[in-house]
């Protein structure tokens, strides 16, 4: 299928814009790849340190340069449900590598924090920066130069983007990402949301709330709503960094283990020692990036990726912009309804046909580049499948994705989409640039014109809600939440409050230079406002009562105040010292000082 001309045009402009950075990047990684395995050039002391803890067989193999050695980067910890299953993966990978005549070593562990635990807490102010810490920690592990390919074990919000940035920085190495899968379905997401709103109104207590949350998040695996973690898995598959059909298989199942072993085998087969050398830096090109953005829109994915994808692409010398993302949204139909865009969870999405069905639909209407290089090695059409377990209980079999959706209310066809566009858009106006996700926002709620109510802390807004001050139409402006101010925490704690006010019939919206959860839902929210307040953005000149107009349909975000009056106002200058200490925040002062803007990926690199 020939790619849609509109997709081709956007891809071409990204390629042209990126040429000054992409071409030197490719030259660097190809020169590094041409050097071949480095173990043979290490001094005897270097090499002895590198395999001192290995058994005799692995030492024998590692002493030369003809045996492929996999570097395992793991985000395992047993506090995060999504990452707990990785405890067993290194041994599975080592056993598989030995059976194939190779070796594997854990090169590094990387931090993995849970936004679900830190939501609304001081620790959330480290969350976004943890992405770049993960990239640096991965680089430390791979810097030993002992490896012919890397296997990345990560799932959640900042972890996969951080691992991807590092994988592309070491773009001469082949890369395979290995997921752990979603937990089995628990309390339905709409019921969980209902209990949260009741708690916000004081109609149920903490005991009832905790019971509901515990029924929702109840076992190993990712949370089952379609937030950043599951958007990550979709991206790794549609960008060709997973083995086909592996994103949404539940943890601790025979198929999950078989897919992990298969990923190790594939990683061994694509090193420079064989005939299928597939460096990660060639897999992730402009076409793969566009495929990722299209997949994000077609599934109603996380707003966090308006920053993460920009930063990931930059690591490969590719310059992706919010305008590219917005333009791709305009031409990508919404094919999936997974909470918060619907009532289903990712297990229902998988049962309805999953990634294989979705990729085939997008390929068949020309919205994806088919002729891409993937870690699997056969172009993107090879991903239009479902993974199954062979009768031997060890081998992964694949069959074509089903011809028809198993549940058209969850996963639909390109000719009968839930929406003609992906619903993730850029807003522009005299307030600057912002991002909004409208796939879960009712059409009648997408335009809000109301007086501003200013907050510098989400807890202040919660207090105003509790005191009854917010029972009216207004635009909540929660500012000094950008990366320079306090690390750009998610403000998902505000979602139930605003949802209550919507349900009471008020016109409300959120405008912030902070983030919302990857599960941004029914409240119209202009987020990632750039320039941020700390950098002198216009959002810092707003005062209570200013009329603000958010038009998600028209793509505008405006202060309805005379321009001269705005320019004459002083910038707000609140005391932010409370964000500088405690929970490790003092260690991240350099990050806050060096971080770039949200539209450039909010990166310190």
From TrEMBL:
Binds 1 [4Fe-4S] cluster. Residues 409-602 form the Dihydroxy-acid/6-phosphogluconate dehydratase C-terminal domain. It comes from the Bacteria. SUPFAM superfamilies: IlvD/EDD N-terminal domain-like (SSF143975), LeuD/IlvD-like (SSF52016). Keywords: 4Fe-4S, Carbohydrate metabolism, Gluconate utilization, Iron, Iron-sulfur, Lyase, Metal-binding. It catalyses: 6-phospho-D-gluconate = 2-dehydro-3-deoxy-6-phospho-D-gluconate + H2O. GO terms for biological process: D-gluconate metabolic process; Entner-Doudoroff pathway through 6-phosphogluconate. [4Fe-4S] cluster binds at residues 156, 223. It is an enzyme of class 4 (lyase). Belongs to the IlvD/Edd family. Catalyzes the dehydration of 6-phospho-D-gluconate to 2-dehydro-3-deoxy-6-phospho-D-gluconate. This is Phosphogluconate dehydratase. It comes from Aurantimonas manganoxydans (strain ATCC BAA-1229 / DSM 21871 / SI85-9A1). The gene is edd.
């Amino acid at each position: 299928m020939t790619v849609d001309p509109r997709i081709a045009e956007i891809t071409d402009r990204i390629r042209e814009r990126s040429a000054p950075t992409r071409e030197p990047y490719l030259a660097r990684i190809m020169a590094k790849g041409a050097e071949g395995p480095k173990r043979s050039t290490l001094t005897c002391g270097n090499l002895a340190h590198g395999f001192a803890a290995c058994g005799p067989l692995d030492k024998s193999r590692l002493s030369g340069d003809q045996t492929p050695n996999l570097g395992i980067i793991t985000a395992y910890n047993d506090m995060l449900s999504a990452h707990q299953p990785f405890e067993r993966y290194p041994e599975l990978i080592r056993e598989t590598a030995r059976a194939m005549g190779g070796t594997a070593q854990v090169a590094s562990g990387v931090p993995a924090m849970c936004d679900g635990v830190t939501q609304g807490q001081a620790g959330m102010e480290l969350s976004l920066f943890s992405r770049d810490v993960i990239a640096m920690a991965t680089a430390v592990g791979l810097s030993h130069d002992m490896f012919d390919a890397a296997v990345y074990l990560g799932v959640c919000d900042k972890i996969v983007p951080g691992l991807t940035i590092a994988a592309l920085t070491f773009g001469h190495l082949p890369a395979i990402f290995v997921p752990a899968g979603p937990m089995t379905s628990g309390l339905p997401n709409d019921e969980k949301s209902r209990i949260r709103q009741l708690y916000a109104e004081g109609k149920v207590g903490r005991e009832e709330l905790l019971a509901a949350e515990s029924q929702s998040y109840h076992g190993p695996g990712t949370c089952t709503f379609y937030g950043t973690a599951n958007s990550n898995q979709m991206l790794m598959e549609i960008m060709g960094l997973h083995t086909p059909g592996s994103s949404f298989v539940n943890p601790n199942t025979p198929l999950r283990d078989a897919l992990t072993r298969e990923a190790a085998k594939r990683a061994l087969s694509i090193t420079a020692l064989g005939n299928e050398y597939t460096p990660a830096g060639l897999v992730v090109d402009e076409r793969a990036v566009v495929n990722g953005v299209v997949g994000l829109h077609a599934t109603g994915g996380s707003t966090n990726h308006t920053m993460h994808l920009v930063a990931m692409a930059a690591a490969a010398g590719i310059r992706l912009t919010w305008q590219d993302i917005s333009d791709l949204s305009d031409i990508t139909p919404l094919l999936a309804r997974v909470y918060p865009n619907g009532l289903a969870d990712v297990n229902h999405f998988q049962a309805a046909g999953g990634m294989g069905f979705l990729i085939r639909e997008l390929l068949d209407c020309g919205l994806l580049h088919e002729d891409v290089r993937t870690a699997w090695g056969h172009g993107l059409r090879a991903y239009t499948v479902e993974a199954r377990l062979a009768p031997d209980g060890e081998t992964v079999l694949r069959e074509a994705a089903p011809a028809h959706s198993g549940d058209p209310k969850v996963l639909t066809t390109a000719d009968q989409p839930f929406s003609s566009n992906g619903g993730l858009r850029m807003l522009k106006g005299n307030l600057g640039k912002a991002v909004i996700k409208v796939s879960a926002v009712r059409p009648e709620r997408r335009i809000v014109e109301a007086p501003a109510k200013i907050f510098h802390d989400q807890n202040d807004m919660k207090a105003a809600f509790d005191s009854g001050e917010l029972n009216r139409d207004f635009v909540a402006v929660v500012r000094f939440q950008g990366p320079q101010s306090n690390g750009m925490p998610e403000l998902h704690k505000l979602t139930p409050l605003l949802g209550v006010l919507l349900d009471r019939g008020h016109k409300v919206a959120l405008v912030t230079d902070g983030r919302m959860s990857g599960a941004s839902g029914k409240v119209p929210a202009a987020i990632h406002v750039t320039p941020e307040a700390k950098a002198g953005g216009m959002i810092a000149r707003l005062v209570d009562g200013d009329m603000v107009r958010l038009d998600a349909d028209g793509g505008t975000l405006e202060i309805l105040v005379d321009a001269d009056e705005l320019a004459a106002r002083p910038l707000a200058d609140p005391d932010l010292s409370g964000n500088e200490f405690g929970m490790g925040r003092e260690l991240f002062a350099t990050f806050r000082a060096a971080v770039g803007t949200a539209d450039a990926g909010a990166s310190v690199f």
